[in-house]
Known about the structure:
Elements: H1 3-15, H2 22-38, H3 40-51, H4 55-81, E1 84-86, E2 95-103, E3 106-110, H5 118-129, E4 133-137, H6 143-152, E5 161-163, H7 168-174, E6 181-185, H8 188-199, E7 205-208, E8 214-217, H9 223-235, E9 247-251, H10 255-270, H11 285-292, E10 299-301, E11 305-306, E12 311-312, E13 315-317, E14 335-341, H12 344-352, E15 359-363, H13 367-375, E16 381-384, E17 398-399, E18 405-406, E19 408-409, H14 411-417, E20 419-427, H15 442-452
Parallel strand pairs: 3-4, 3-6, 4-5, 6-7, 8-9, 8-15, 9-14, 13-14, 15-16
Antiparallel strand pairs: 1-2, 2-20, 7-18, 10-13, 11-12, 17-19
Helix pairs in contact: 2-4, 3-4, 3-6, 4-5, 4-14, 5-14, 9-10
Amino acid sequence: MNYSALIDRQRAYFKSNQTRSLKARKQALTDLKKLILEHQTAIETALFNDLKKHKEEAYVTEIGTCIAEIDFALKHLKGWMSPRKAHTPLMYFPGKSYMLAQPYGVTLVMASWNYPFKLIVGPLIAALAAGNTAILKPSEISAHTSKLIAKLFESFNQDLVSVVQGGVEQTTELLKEKFDYIFFTGSTMVGKIIHKAAAQHLTPCTLELGGKSPAIVDQHTNLKVTAKRLVWGKFLNAGQTCVAPDYILVHHNIKEALINAIKDEIINFYSENPQSSSLPRIISDKHFRRVQGLIDGKIVFGGQTDAKDRYIAPTLIDGVTLNDKIMQEEIFGPLLPFITFKDVSKAIEIINSMAKPLSLYVFSKQKSFIEKIIANTSSGGVCVNETIMHMTSAYLPFGGVGSSGFGAYNGKFGFDTLSHLKPVMKRSFLFDIPQKYPPINKSKFNFLKFALKRLS
């Protein structure tokens, strides 16, 4: 594929101003929603073929969330596009100040394989709402969904949205081109490559990465609800979720009770034989071998694997240390290790000894415990007495910090991320401040010092 020609075509379309009006943006979003609804069954089938994700989970975590995001954008888009008033200091009167959200231009959206539909369409919604064009690069690892996305968008306006398929070689060539914005979801390792490529053209980008998201469980908690929410958040999509609880920091007084409660909830969710349940599978043989290689001899529940089926049972691992392999990388699979602590300061020390995570979960009935964890740790987001749900709210930004990425999206935050917020100040000809013009004498200088103190 001639990437330069594709980008030039989209850039020409963008410069024709056909993407910028409220009407055009709403039409693009409406067309996208129609595309999803008309091909919902095909999308469900592709997700099942890639991840053995049953249609109910596919709808809740990917298809339905995209439809909801489109509806939310359509409802609020006019307000998002409106000029945003800004305060004008007295020194600048008569005048007014405001900010305009303007599209960047040609955007590149690159998605990971774990939620292969949601992670390509979610940023696309933001790009279209903001008035950009988009080139989509779905992950080649989720091959069935990638091929389907390419096929679906053949019927879309190619000057507005185009799809590029391929692996490392194609991605490398694509990244040599100049885009106006790059939005990438994936691993920290690949994120560094994307960032380096973007820097060659000074292209702004958002990197949604991962990390080892901890769940801290205080001894003063509702054990049953805590266990249920941890099991749901951890084993959703077989643990292949960037914000899944990666490890449990549990107060030593309740470790055994928590493990037993989690065992019960795993059985409640996935039966005595999870392989015959709705539990999804590991995406590929390569990733199966990697996750399987993190299992050691400290298994207290689960541990069963089936390479042919790419199945790994929900597995609990006790007695883990920070030096163990499972604590050296993001698990991205259905393994849940436990580390104990006696004092909240020790839990904070463990969290801060590692790279900043994408999410942090804290379970406690004690306000002081919760506030101490939040105040003394850094993470992309926090969820108290719950898992994952914070990233689904259109009223909260979702994004990382440090090694877990930068930039954010969801609702208006996605619109703002894919827009340049341009400041505008308008002055009148009716009045001027002669003291600002040279030559600057002592009297003028004293006036300027006085005026500068009153800019706020």
